[in-house]
Protein backbone atom coordinates (compact mmCIF):
# COMPACT_ATOMS: atom_id res chain seq x y z
CA UNK A 1 0.00 0.00 0.00
CA UNK A 2 1.14 3.54 -0.79
CA UNK A 3 -0.76 6.62 0.43
CA UNK A 4 -0.18 10.35 0.05
CA UNK A 5 -1.82 13.80 -0.21
CA UNK A 6 -3.25 14.76 -3.60
CA UNK A 7 -0.86 17.66 -4.21
CA UNK A 8 2.20 19.18 -2.50
CA UNK A 9 3.50 22.70 -3.26
CA UNK A 10 6.64 24.16 -1.67
CA UNK A 11 8.40 27.48 -2.20
CA UNK A 12 9.00 30.97 -0.88
CA UNK A 13 5.77 32.99 -0.83
CA UNK A 14 3.61 30.06 -1.97
CA UNK A 15 0.69 30.96 0.34
CA UNK A 16 0.02 34.16 -1.58
CA UNK A 17 0.37 32.40 -4.91
CA UNK A 18 -2.18 29.71 -4.08
CA UNK A 19 -5.59 31.11 -5.00
CA UNK A 20 -5.72 29.28 -8.34
CA UNK A 21 -5.24 25.92 -6.63
CA UNK A 22 -7.65 26.75 -3.81
CA UNK A 23 -10.47 27.86 -6.11
CA UNK A 24 -10.53 24.28 -7.44
CA UNK A 25 -11.55 23.12 -3.95
CA UNK A 26 -14.20 25.65 -2.91
CA UNK A 27 -14.96 29.23 -1.96
CA UNK A 28 -16.06 29.09 1.70
CA UNK A 29 -13.12 28.53 3.99
CA UNK A 30 -12.61 27.88 7.68
CA UNK A 31 -9.04 28.91 8.49
CA UNK A 32 -7.71 27.63 11.79
CA UNK A 33 -4.55 28.83 13.54
CA UNK A 34 -3.43 29.37 17.12
CA UNK A 35 -2.86 32.71 18.83
CA UNK A 36 0.84 32.75 17.89
CA UNK A 37 0.40 31.94 14.19
CA UNK A 38 -2.52 34.31 13.51
CA UNK A 39 -0.42 37.50 13.61
CA UNK A 40 2.60 35.84 11.95
CA UNK A 41 0.85 34.38 8.91
CA UNK A 42 -2.88 34.00 9.45
CA UNK A 43 -4.05 37.59 9.12
CA UNK A 44 -2.18 38.17 5.84
CA UNK A 45 -3.20 34.82 4.35
CA UNK A 46 -6.87 35.31 5.27
CA UNK A 47 -6.82 38.81 3.76
CA UNK A 48 -5.21 37.47 0.59
CA UNK A 49 -7.99 34.90 0.25
CA UNK A 50 -10.75 37.43 0.94
CA UNK A 51 -9.25 39.73 -1.70
CA UNK A 52 -9.39 36.85 -4.18
CA UNK A 53 -13.04 35.89 -3.81
CA UNK A 54 -13.06 33.56 -0.81
CA UNK A 55 -15.30 33.83 2.23
CA UNK A 56 -13.13 33.15 5.28
CA UNK A 57 -14.32 32.10 8.74
CA UNK A 58 -11.53 32.43 11.27
CA UNK A 59 -11.15 30.03 14.21
CA UNK A 60 -8.50 30.18 16.91
CA UNK A 61 -7.05 26.81 17.85
CA UNK A 62 -6.65 26.31 21.58
CA UNK A 63 -3.28 24.59 21.40
CA UNK A 64 -4.04 20.92 22.16
CA UNK A 65 -5.26 18.26 19.71
CA UNK A 66 -8.00 16.48 21.65
CA UNK A 67 -11.56 15.37 21.06
CA UNK A 68 -13.36 18.29 22.70
CA UNK A 69 -11.35 20.86 20.74
CA UNK A 70 -12.12 19.04 17.49
CA UNK A 71 -15.83 19.07 18.38
CA UNK A 72 -15.78 22.79 19.22
CA UNK A 73 -14.20 23.93 15.96
CA UNK A 74 -16.20 21.44 13.89
CA UNK A 75 -19.36 23.19 15.10
CA UNK A 76 -17.97 26.58 14.01
CA UNK A 77 -17.20 25.17 10.56
CA UNK A 78 -20.57 23.43 10.23
CA UNK A 79 -22.48 26.59 11.22
CA UNK A 80 -20.54 28.56 8.59
CA UNK A 81 -21.32 25.89 5.95
CA UNK A 82 -17.74 25.85 4.73
CA UNK A 83 -16.50 23.54 1.98
CA UNK A 84 -12.80 23.81 2.80
CA UNK A 85 -10.73 23.59 6.00
CA UNK A 86 -7.31 25.25 6.07
CA UNK A 87 -5.06 24.26 8.94
CA UNK A 88 -2.30 26.85 9.36
CA UNK A 89 0.42 26.27 11.93
CA UNK A 90 2.18 23.45 13.75
CA UNK A 91 1.55 19.74 14.06
CA UNK A 92 -1.28 19.84 16.59
CA UNK A 93 -3.13 22.51 14.61
CA UNK A 94 -2.76 20.45 11.45
CA UNK A 95 -3.82 17.21 13.12
CA UNK A 96 -6.94 18.91 14.47
CA UNK A 97 -7.82 20.32 11.04
CA UNK A 98 -7.65 16.79 9.58
CA UNK A 99 -10.23 15.55 12.06
CA UNK A 100 -12.55 18.49 11.34
CA UNK A 101 -12.36 17.97 7.58
CA UNK A 102 -13.12 14.29 8.02
CA UNK A 103 -16.14 15.04 10.24
CA UNK A 104 -17.58 17.47 7.67
CA UNK A 105 -16.42 15.63 4.53
CA UNK A 106 -14.83 18.95 3.53
CA UNK A 107 -11.77 19.59 1.40
CA UNK A 108 -8.59 19.87 3.44
CA UNK A 109 -5.63 22.20 2.93
CA UNK A 110 -2.58 21.84 5.17
CA UNK A 111 -0.27 24.87 5.55
CA UNK A 112 2.59 24.30 8.03
CA UNK A 113 4.39 27.36 9.36
CA UNK A 114 7.41 25.39 10.56
CA UNK A 115 9.24 22.31 9.30
CA UNK A 116 9.16 20.82 12.77
CA UNK A 117 7.51 17.44 12.08
CA UNK A 118 6.09 15.28 9.32
CA UNK A 119 2.42 15.73 10.23
CA UNK A 120 1.57 17.87 7.16
CA UNK A 121 1.56 15.02 4.64
CA UNK A 122 0.21 12.23 6.86
CA UNK A 123 -3.35 10.90 6.71
CA UNK A 124 -3.55 10.48 10.46
CA UNK A 125 -3.58 12.55 13.62
CA UNK A 126 -1.87 12.09 16.96
CA UNK A 127 -4.50 12.93 19.57
CA UNK A 128 -3.86 13.78 23.20
CA UNK A 129 -5.78 14.14 26.42
CA UNK A 130 -6.62 17.72 27.52
CA UNK A 131 -3.57 17.70 29.81
CA UNK A 132 -1.23 16.73 26.97
CA UNK A 133 -0.78 12.97 27.42
CA UNK A 134 -0.72 10.74 24.35
CA UNK A 135 -4.19 9.31 23.72
CA UNK A 136 -4.40 7.62 20.31
CA UNK A 137 -3.62 7.68 16.62
CA UNK A 138 -6.66 8.63 14.54
CA UNK A 139 -6.64 7.33 10.96
CA UNK A 140 -8.64 8.94 8.15
CA UNK A 141 -10.21 7.58 5.01
CA UNK A 142 -8.46 10.15 2.82
CA UNK A 143 -5.52 12.52 2.86
CA UNK A 144 -5.42 16.28 2.35
CA UNK A 145 -6.27 17.76 -1.02
CA UNK A 146 -3.36 20.19 -0.91
CA UNK A 147 -0.26 20.85 1.17
CA UNK A 148 1.18 24.39 0.98
CA UNK A 149 4.68 24.85 2.41
CA UNK A 150 5.87 28.46 2.38
CA UNK A 151 9.62 28.30 2.87
CA UNK A 152 9.97 32.03 3.57
CA UNK A 153 7.68 31.65 6.59
CA UNK A 154 9.69 28.60 7.66
CA UNK A 155 12.97 30.53 7.22
CA UNK A 156 11.60 33.08 9.69
CA UNK A 157 10.48 30.44 12.22
CA UNK A 158 12.59 29.61 15.29
CA UNK A 159 15.63 27.49 14.44
CA UNK A 160 14.63 25.07 17.18
CA UNK A 161 11.60 24.05 15.10
CA UNK A 162 13.72 23.17 12.05
CA UNK A 163 16.19 21.20 14.17
CA UNK A 164 13.28 19.34 15.79
CA UNK A 165 11.97 18.47 12.34
CA UNK A 166 15.38 17.19 11.27
CA UNK A 167 15.43 14.93 14.30
CA UNK A 168 11.92 13.62 13.62
CA UNK A 169 12.90 13.00 9.98
CA UNK A 170 16.09 11.16 10.93
CA UNK A 171 13.97 8.54 12.67
CA UNK A 172 12.11 7.80 9.42
CA UNK A 173 14.55 5.49 7.68
CA UNK A 174 15.72 3.84 10.90
CA UNK A 175 12.16 2.87 11.80
CA UNK A 176 11.27 1.95 8.20
CA UNK A 177 14.21 -0.46 8.01
CA UNK A 178 13.16 -2.13 11.26
CA UNK A 179 9.57 -2.45 10.02
CA UNK A 180 10.71 -3.94 6.71
CA UNK A 181 12.86 -6.50 8.53
CA UNK A 182 9.85 -7.50 10.64
CA UNK A 183 7.49 -7.42 7.61
CA UNK A 184 5.42 -5.15 9.84
CA UNK A 185 2.39 -3.05 9.01
CA UNK A 186 2.90 0.57 7.97
CA UNK A 187 0.91 3.50 9.31
CA UNK A 188 -0.95 3.44 6.00
CA UNK A 189 -2.28 0.02 6.97
CA UNK A 190 -0.41 -2.29 4.59
CA UNK A 191 2.98 -3.71 3.70
CA UNK A 192 5.71 -1.29 2.71
CA UNK A 193 6.18 -0.69 -1.01
CA UNK A 194 9.59 -0.28 -2.60
CA UNK A 195 8.56 3.34 -3.22
CA UNK A 196 7.88 3.94 0.47
CA UNK A 197 11.19 2.39 1.50
CA UNK A 198 13.07 4.38 -1.16
CA UNK A 199 11.52 7.65 0.03
CA UNK A 200 12.55 6.89 3.62
CA UNK A 201 16.12 6.20 2.51
CA UNK A 202 16.23 9.39 0.41
CA UNK A 203 14.99 11.34 3.42
CA UNK A 204 18.01 10.26 5.44
CA UNK A 205 20.43 10.97 2.57
CA UNK A 206 19.16 14.54 2.25
CA UNK A 207 19.50 15.08 6.00
CA UNK A 208 23.14 13.96 6.03
CA UNK A 209 23.96 16.25 3.09
CA UNK A 210 22.11 19.49 3.88
CA UNK A 211 21.14 19.70 7.55
CA UNK A 212 23.92 21.94 8.87
CA UNK A 213 23.68 24.44 6.00
CA UNK A 214 19.89 24.56 6.36
CA UNK A 215 20.24 25.45 10.03
CA UNK A 216 22.62 28.28 9.17
CA UNK A 217 20.15 29.49 6.53
CA UNK A 218 17.35 29.43 9.09
CA UNK A 219 19.49 31.39 11.54
CA UNK A 220 19.98 34.04 8.82
CA UNK A 221 16.25 33.89 7.85
CA UNK A 222 17.09 33.22 4.21
CA UNK A 223 15.70 30.69 1.76
CA UNK A 224 18.51 28.67 0.16
CA UNK A 225 18.73 25.38 -1.76
CA UNK A 226 19.87 23.70 1.47
CA UNK A 227 16.87 25.02 3.38
CA UNK A 228 14.49 23.97 0.60
CA UNK A 229 16.06 20.49 0.65
CA UNK A 230 15.65 20.07 4.40
CA UNK A 231 12.12 21.45 4.43
CA UNK A 232 11.22 18.84 1.83
CA UNK A 233 12.98 16.12 3.82
CA UNK A 234 11.33 17.11 7.11
CA UNK A 235 7.88 17.44 5.57
CA UNK A 236 7.34 15.44 2.38
CA UNK A 237 10.01 12.73 2.46
CA UNK A 238 9.66 12.06 6.17
CA UNK A 239 5.86 12.16 6.01
CA UNK A 240 5.56 9.77 3.09
CA UNK A 241 8.45 7.71 4.43
CA UNK A 242 7.01 7.08 7.88
CA UNK A 243 3.45 6.50 6.70
CA UNK A 244 4.50 4.15 3.92
CA UNK A 245 7.54 2.68 5.67
CA UNK A 246 6.32 2.21 9.24
CA UNK A 247 7.13 3.38 12.76
CA UNK A 248 8.96 1.25 15.30
CA UNK A 249 10.79 1.85 18.59
CA UNK A 250 11.71 5.54 18.33
CA UNK A 251 8.14 6.83 18.25
CA UNK A 252 6.90 4.16 20.66
CA UNK A 253 9.43 5.44 23.20
CA UNK A 254 8.37 9.02 22.47
CA UNK A 255 4.80 8.00 23.32
CA UNK A 256 6.08 6.14 26.37
CA UNK A 257 7.35 9.42 27.81
CA UNK A 258 3.73 10.45 28.42
CA UNK A 259 3.61 7.84 31.21
CA UNK A 260 5.57 10.21 33.45
CA UNK A 261 5.41 13.83 34.50
CA UNK A 262 8.33 16.22 34.56
CA UNK A 263 10.57 18.48 32.55
CA UNK A 264 10.84 16.10 29.63
CA UNK A 265 7.55 17.56 28.43
CA UNK A 266 9.24 20.93 27.94
CA UNK A 267 10.97 19.33 24.93
CA UNK A 268 9.52 19.34 21.44
CA UNK A 269 8.26 16.25 19.63
CA UNK A 270 11.44 16.02 17.57
CA UNK A 271 13.73 16.49 20.57
CA UNK A 272 12.06 13.59 22.34
CA UNK A 273 12.21 11.50 19.16
CA UNK A 274 15.99 12.14 19.01
CA UNK A 275 16.49 10.25 22.25
CA UNK A 276 13.94 7.62 21.21
CA UNK A 277 15.91 7.06 18.01
CA UNK A 278 19.15 6.67 19.93
CA UNK A 279 17.44 4.09 22.13
CA UNK A 280 16.25 2.19 19.04
CA UNK A 281 19.78 2.18 17.64
CA UNK A 282 21.05 0.71 20.92
CA UNK A 283 18.27 -1.89 21.05
CA UNK A 284 19.24 -3.00 17.55
CA UNK A 285 22.88 -3.45 18.52
CA UNK A 286 24.08 -0.85 16.01
CA UNK A 287 27.86 -1.17 15.40
CA UNK A 288 29.90 1.59 17.02
CA UNK A 289 31.12 3.22 13.77
CA UNK A 290 27.54 3.70 12.57
CA UNK A 291 26.25 4.65 16.01
CA UNK A 292 28.95 7.30 16.38
CA UNK A 293 27.79 8.96 13.15
CA UNK A 294 24.34 9.47 14.62
CA UNK A 295 25.71 10.64 17.97
CA UNK A 296 27.88 13.26 16.27
CA UNK A 297 24.95 14.37 14.09
CA UNK A 298 22.62 14.83 17.07
CA UNK A 299 25.21 16.59 19.24
CA UNK A 300 26.23 18.90 16.38
CA UNK A 301 22.57 19.91 16.05
CA UNK A 302 22.33 20.49 19.81
CA UNK A 303 19.74 17.74 20.28
CA UNK A 304 19.14 16.08 23.67
CA UNK A 305 20.40 12.48 23.61
CA UNK A 306 21.33 11.91 27.25
CA UNK A 307 19.28 11.29 30.35
CA UNK A 308 20.35 14.68 31.67
CA UNK A 309 19.44 16.57 28.49
CA UNK A 310 16.00 14.94 28.39
CA UNK A 311 15.56 15.48 32.15
CA UNK A 312 15.01 11.75 32.60
CA UNK A 313 17.86 11.66 35.12
CA UNK A 314 15.36 13.20 37.55
CA UNK A 315 13.21 10.06 37.45
CA UNK A 316 13.45 6.89 39.48
CA UNK A 317 14.01 3.47 37.94
CA UNK A 318 10.35 2.74 38.66
CA UNK A 319 9.35 5.77 36.56
CA UNK A 320 11.70 4.75 33.75
CA UNK A 321 10.06 1.33 33.80
CA UNK A 322 6.67 3.03 33.32
CA UNK A 323 8.05 4.57 30.13
CA UNK A 324 9.25 1.15 29.02
CA UNK A 325 5.92 -0.45 29.82
CA UNK A 326 3.90 2.10 27.82
CA UNK A 327 6.37 2.00 24.92
CA UNK A 328 5.97 -1.79 24.67
CA UNK A 329 2.17 -1.86 25.03
CA UNK A 330 0.53 -4.27 22.55
CA UNK A 331 -0.93 -1.52 20.35
CA UNK A 332 2.30 0.52 20.20
CA UNK A 333 4.56 0.67 17.15
CA UNK A 334 7.24 -1.20 19.10
CA UNK A 335 5.56 -4.29 17.60
CA UNK A 336 7.32 -3.40 14.31
CA UNK A 337 10.71 -4.16 15.81
CA UNK A 338 12.10 -7.43 14.39
CA UNK A 339 12.45 -8.92 17.88
CA UNK A 340 10.49 -8.78 21.12
CA UNK A 341 11.28 -5.73 23.27
CA UNK A 342 10.51 -5.75 26.99
CA UNK A 343 10.13 -2.74 29.31
CA UNK A 344 13.41 -3.67 31.00
CA UNK A 345 15.20 -3.65 27.64
CA UNK A 346 13.92 -0.13 26.99
CA UNK A 347 15.23 1.12 30.36
CA UNK A 348 18.64 -0.50 29.84
CA UNK A 349 18.87 0.95 26.32
CA UNK A 350 17.98 4.44 27.57
CA UNK A 351 20.79 4.27 30.13
CA UNK A 352 23.22 2.84 27.58
CA UNK A 353 22.37 5.42 24.90
CA UNK A 354 23.03 8.20 27.39
CA UNK A 355 26.35 6.64 28.44
CA UNK A 356 27.47 6.22 24.83
CA UNK A 357 26.66 9.86 24.06
CA UNK A 358 28.59 11.05 27.11
CA UNK A 359 31.51 8.84 26.15
CA UNK A 360 31.61 10.15 22.61
CA UNK A 361 31.38 13.76 23.70
CA UNK A 362 34.18 13.39 26.23
CA UNK A 363 36.58 12.17 23.54
CA UNK A 364 35.54 14.41 20.62
CA UNK A 365 35.33 18.15 20.12
CA UNK A 366 31.76 19.01 19.22
CA UNK A 367 30.87 22.46 17.87
CA UNK A 368 27.08 22.66 17.70
CA UNK A 369 25.59 24.58 14.78
CA UNK A 370 22.61 25.26 17.01
CA UNK A 371 22.63 25.82 20.76
CA UNK A 372 19.28 24.93 22.26
CA UNK A 373 18.66 27.95 24.48
CA UNK A 374 15.90 26.16 26.37
CA UNK A 375 18.34 23.44 27.42
CA UNK A 376 21.18 25.89 28.03
CA UNK A 377 18.98 28.03 30.31
CA UNK A 378 18.12 24.91 32.27
CA UNK A 379 21.82 24.27 32.81
CA UNK A 380 21.79 21.02 30.85
CA UNK A 381 24.91 19.78 29.10
CA UNK A 382 24.77 17.08 26.48
From TrEMBL:
<feature type="binding site">
    <location>
        <position position="251"/>
    </location>
    <ligand>
        <name>glycerol</name>
    </ligand>
</feature>
<keyword id="KW-0520">NAD</keyword>
<feature type="binding site">
    <location>
        <begin position="91"/>
        <end position="95"/>
    </location>
    <ligand>
        <name>NAD(+)</name>
    </ligand>
</feature>
<dbReference type="GO" id="GO:0046872">
    <property type="term" value="F:metal ion binding"/>
</dbReference>
<feature type="binding site">
    <location>
        <position position="34"/>
    </location>
    <ligand>
        <name>NAD(+)</name>
    </ligand>
</feature>
<keyword id="KW-0862">Zinc</keyword>
<feature type="binding site">
    <location>
        <position position="168"/>
    </location>
    <ligand>
        <name>glycerol</name>
    </ligand>
</feature>
<feature type="binding site">
    <location>
        <position position="118"/>
    </location>
    <ligand>
        <name>glycerol</name>
    </ligand>
</feature>
<feature type="domain" description="Alcohol dehydrogenase iron-type/glycerol dehydrogenase GldA">
    <location>
        <begin position="5"/>
        <end position="151"/>
    </location>
</feature>
<dbReference type="InterPro" id="IPR001670">
    <property type="entry name" value="ADH_Fe/GldA"/>
</dbReference>
<dbReference type="InterPro" id="IPR018211">
    <property type="entry name" value="ADH_Fe_CS"/>
</dbReference>
<feature type="binding site">
    <location>
        <position position="124"/>
    </location>
    <ligand>
        <name>NAD(+)</name>
    </ligand>
</feature>
<feature type="binding site">
    <location>
        <position position="128"/>
    </location>
    <ligand>
        <name>NAD(+)</name>
    </ligand>
</feature>
<dbReference type="InterPro" id="IPR016205">
    <property type="entry name" value="Glycerol_DH"/>
</dbReference>
<protein>
    <recommendedName>
        <fullName>Glycerol dehydrogenase</fullName>
        <ecNumber>1.1.1.6</ecNumber>
    </recommendedName>
</protein>
<dbReference type="Pfam" id="PF00465">
    <property type="entry name" value="Fe-ADH"/>
</dbReference>
<dbReference type="GO" id="GO:0008888">
    <property type="term" value="F:glycerol dehydrogenase (NAD+) activity"/>
</dbReference>
<feature type="binding site">
    <location>
        <position position="269"/>
    </location>
    <ligand>
        <name>glycerol</name>
    </ligand>
</feature>
<keyword id="KW-0479">Metal-binding</keyword>
<feature type="binding site">
    <location>
        <begin position="113"/>
        <end position="116"/>
    </location>
    <ligand>
        <name>NAD(+)</name>
    </ligand>
</feature>
<comment type="pathway">
    <text>Polyol metabolism; glycerol fermentation; glycerone phosphate from glycerol (oxidative route): step 1/2.</text>
</comment>
<comment type="similarity">
    <text>Belongs to the iron-containing alcohol dehydrogenase family.</text>
</comment>
<keyword id="KW-0560">Oxidoreductase</keyword>
